[in-house]
């Protein structure tokens, strides 16, 4: 079969290789991949790929071999999955605990755009707690996670302010009901909850906008710049603020995938697809994703998904 593997070349980060089909473990199903969606974090891992790294965590396709242990969906079932790696290929072995069945009304393109960004949004909002009537600030809202958090948080009754790099990137979030600003300093606090994903100088600015007793959830560092906090500046800012570290990862993912699928089916969540292309265009798409030239999710189609 064909698989995309890292090259270590920033200008062309992946290339096709002919490899054997994966052999599933007893608790894994073999999926014929129809569509997959790269994430910006994966583009960073491809800059200096570790030995044996096989990219690909967000896939949708068809079960062609059911799990030997009897768990999970049967042959011929359409699914969305979140394997640990290896999804940018014609076939992927995916643990059945990280699969969800797709209804007829959800195509593989929309399904592939759900896993990492959608699971992150769900788990992030659970960490934040009830948002009904609360003032919330979301930084770094331009990407897939930002879109899902915005739609879900506004739907839950939050008064949401989002920070995006440009007005163009903020248009869709404003349409979903968020107040859009283009710098953390421009956000009108105080906020009950801050969801912070950029790091660098933005985190201290966002922290200063938390109300006394509020919470900042730190879930990323998209700026790739470390954070510096000044103890004495904190003394002059809001009191008793809680800073929580958050990372989405932790299988099983199947129940969260099923929840995302239900939300899409009910019309309560709408994946934003900024680019759909043949997987022959993956290398260029990864560069555009890394350089933020794609708004929303990028989805690549294999032979069966085209």
Task: Describe the protein's architecture and organization.
Helix content is 25%, strand content 26%. It is globular, with a radius of gyration of 20 Å. With 306 residues, it is of the alpha/beta class. Strands 3, 4, 5, 6, 7, 14 and 15 form a 7-stranded mixed sheet that branches. It has a 6-stranded parallel sheet with strand order 10-9-8-11-12-13. InterPro entries: ADH-like_C (IPR013149), ADH-like_N (IPR013154), ER (IPR020843), GroES-like_sf (IPR011032), NAD(P)-bd_dom_sf (IPR036291).
Strand count, sense and barrel status of the largest sheet are: 7 strands, mixed
**Backbone structural class:** alpha/beta
Rg: 20 Å
Secondary structure tally: strands? 15
Helical coverage, percent range: 25-40%
The geometry reads as: globular
Mean pLDDT: 94
Number of helices: 9
> Into which percentage range does the β-strand content fall?
25-35%
Q: Note the gap between the termini.
A: 17 Å
Q: Which spans of ≥5 residues are poorly predicted at pLDDT below 50?
A: none
SSE topology string: EEEHEEEEHHEHEHEEHEHEHEHE
Summarize the structure.
By secondary structure, the protein is an alpha/beta fold. It contains nine helices and 15 strands. Residues 9-300 form the Enoyl reductase (ER) domain.
Topology:
Layout: E1 2-6, E2 14-18, E3 28-36, H1 40-45, E4 59-65, E5 78-81, E6 91-95, E7 99-101, H2 108-112, H3 115-128, E8 135-138, H4 144-155, E9 159-163, H5 167-175, E10 179-181, E11 191-196, H6 202-207, E12 210-218, H7 231-235, E13 242-245, H8 254-265, E14 273-278, H9 282-290, E15 297-301
Parallel strand pairs: 8-9, 8-11, 9-10, 11-12, 12-13, 14-15
Antiparallel strand pairs: 1-2, 3-4, 3-6, 3-15, 4-5, 5-7
Helix pairs in contact: 3-4
């Amino acid at each position: 079969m064909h698989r995309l593997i890292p090259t270590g070349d920033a200008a062309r980060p992946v290339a096709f290789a002919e490899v054997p089909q994966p052999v599933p473990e007893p608790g894994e199903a073999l999926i014929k991949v129809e569509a997959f969606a790269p994430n910006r974090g994966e583009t960073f891992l491809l800059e200096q790929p570790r030995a044996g790294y096989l990219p690909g965590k967000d896939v949708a396709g068809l079960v062609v071999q059911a799990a030997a242990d009897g768990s999970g969906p049967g042959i011929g079932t359409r699914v969305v999955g979140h394997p640990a790696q290896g999804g940018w290929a014609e076939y992927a072995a995916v643990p059945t605990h990280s699969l969800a069945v797709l209804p007829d009304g959800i195509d593989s393109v929309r399904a592939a755009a759900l896993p990492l960004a959608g699971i992150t949004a769900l788990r992030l909002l659970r960490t934040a707690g009830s948002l009904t009537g609360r003032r919330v600030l979301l930084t770094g809202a331009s990407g897939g996670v930002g879109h899902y958090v915005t739609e879900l948080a506004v739907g839950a009754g939050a008064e949401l302010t989002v920070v995006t790099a440009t007005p163009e990137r903020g248009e869709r979030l404003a349409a979903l009901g968020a107040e859009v600003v283009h710098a953390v300093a421009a956000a009108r606090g105080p906020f009950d909850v801050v969801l912070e994903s950029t790091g660098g100088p933005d985190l201290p600015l966002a922290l200063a906008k938390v109300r006394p007793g509020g919470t900042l959830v730190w879930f990323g560092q998209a700026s790739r710049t470390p954070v510096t906090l000044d103890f004495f500046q904190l003394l002059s800012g809001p009191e008793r603020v809680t800073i929580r570290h958050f990372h989405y990862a932790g299988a099983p993912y199947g129940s969260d995938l099923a929840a995302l699928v239900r939300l899409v089916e009910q019309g309560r969540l709408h994946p934003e697809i900024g680019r759909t292309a043949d997987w022959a265009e993956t290398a260029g798409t990864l560069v555009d994703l890394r350089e933020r030239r794609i708004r929303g999710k990028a989805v690549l189609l294999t032979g069966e998904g085209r």
